[in-house]
Amino acid sequence: MNTAVLVVIIVASILVIGLIAYLVYFIQKKKKIQESEEAASQVVDESTSDLAKLFGSKKNIKAITSTGSRVSVELNDITLVDIDKIKEIYKDVLFTNNKVVFVIGEKSKEFAAQLEKKING
Fold it and tell me: How much of the chain exceeds pLDDT 90, in percent?
């Protein structure tokens, strides 16, 4: 067999093996990202169910807004809010005069939508 043909076969084999390895890596990475997003969505859904009850009542909430990585809940009366329980559920939460601000991250829009859905029934 010619040496040039042998070299071509070896190089082609290496390229095919490399392509297969890359595809396996890509598929596994995509699967992990999807699992992570599903887990984050489930956490958002579960935590908003708990939070919806802690703002006093539906009438106590003026507005829920999402800005960047934060979700703000504007309230009529902050004294009706169970601050201690909210702090147990979320570490990254700020309380101001009549506003509760959650630092959520990438899922802030989804969090705001779920929270509004849970509060409005």
Answer: 27
